[in-house]
Amino acid sequence: MLGSDEAKALHAEHPAIDLHADSLMWTRWIGYDLHKRHTPPLPRAALGGHVDVPRMRDGGMCAQFFGLVSLPLAYGQRGMARVIDEQIDALEETILRGPADLVLVRTPADLAAARAAGQMAALLGIEGAHALEGDLDRLDAFARRGVRYLGISHFSANEAAFPAYGRGRDDTKGLTAFGFDLVRRCEAAGVVVDLAHINKRGFLDACGVATRPPIVSHTGVLGAFDHWRNIDDEQLRAVADLGGVVGVIFCPRFVGGDGLDPVVAHFMHILDVVGEEACALGSDWDGFIVPTAPLADPTGLPLLTDALLRKGVSRAAIGKLLHGNVVRVLGDCQAPG
Fold first, then answer.
1. Other CB atoms within 10 A of residue 168 CB
2. Residue 212: other Cβ atoms inside 10 A
3. Strand 61-69 vs strand 16-21: parallel, antiparallel, or unpaired?
4. How many CB atoms lie within 10 A of CB 78?
5. Between the CA of residue 150 and those of 20, 140, 177, what are the distances in Å?
6. Please, which residues have CB within 8 angstroms of residue 112's CB and are 6 or more apart in sequence?
7. What angle do CA 313, 227, 311 make, to 5 degrees?
8. Exposed, middle or buried by CB within 10 Å (0-12, 13-18, 19+), for 316?
């Protein structure tokens, strides 16, 4: 395991939870096996190969949220829900081949049980409400299959909202009536609202109607680097005021350069503006990004912990950033009963 003895001890006490990796997209497309240790086929290209169970263990992780991706440009306006189900099917088949190593979890209690059993935990989140194909009942169906968060937008406008960037972008418009209903339905179903990729007006609309903590699963912050992908301090405060968390992305294009220092700068800005309850990991591994070199896969996470320690971040705050904040949000957003 990489990192100092202090970092290793922190990960043993507070094993890391990452809010977003797109690995199941590759499992569905090419049979990518999460049980095997991989080396990215082209280390400096956005071709996946970042996450697997052996490297999660090596990096001091206990859980990975897997994003479920459907692309309207590829599939048209119908068939996107089927693509989500196929990725969940792929995860279930993967788990059946190694249940002692990987398990699908939904709740903090499930997560604790997996940790006690020595299993890596998988959690699910959908990237973009277009996957619902305009039908709120599909949200409940996906929740029954284990989906714990829903991204309201991705790279295209949908029935609920408009993207920060992409097809149908319109910065003058916020949530639609369907979008407001969707936020309420998410909360009723125990599905966390994810505000990654949505435009600012829709972002603030969602925070205005939310009564439970939202997340921003993978993003940078404008206070550390100016980029369309990143959120500003008003958005940070809106999430933090609801008890939500912001996952910092590991992509050099969005954080402002390669190496650990740019990533750490985003964490430090969040800590300075809204405090230690709002920070989380949001790698975007296995998405169409090239991750920063020291965090090219989960084995580098203790190096990030060391970098935060060098910046004077307390052990307690790092424990929340790695683990505790996400567990709290999961508990706060469970469905009644």
1. 14
2. 19
3. parallel
4. 10
5. 12, 11, 17
6. none
7. 15
8. exposed
Amino acid at position 309, single letter: L
| Cα angle 251-258-126, degrees, rounded to a multiple of 5 | 10
pLDDT in tens, 108-138: 999 999 999 999 999 999 999 999 999 999 9
Q: Could you tell me if 267 and 308 are in contact, meaning their C-beta atoms sit under 8 angstroms apart?
A: yes
Task: Provide the residue type at 172 as one letter.
Answer: T
Q: Would you give the DSSP letter of residue 321?
A: I
Q: In the block, which residue shows the tokens 């991204």? A: 151
Mean pLDDT of the region 178-206: 97
Give the DSSP H/E element, type plus range, for residue 184. Answer: helix 177-189
Cα–Cα nearest to 232, from 199, 263, 260: 199
Which CATH superfamily includes the segment(s) 5-332? Metal-dependent hydrolases (3.20.20.140)
d(CA 142, CA 87): 12
Look-up: residue for tokens 């997209």?
A: 25
Q: What is the pLDDT, as a whole number, of residue 44?
A: 66
User: CA angle, corner 170, sides to 165 and 173, nearest 5?
Assistant: 125
Residue whose structure tokens are 């009536």: 177
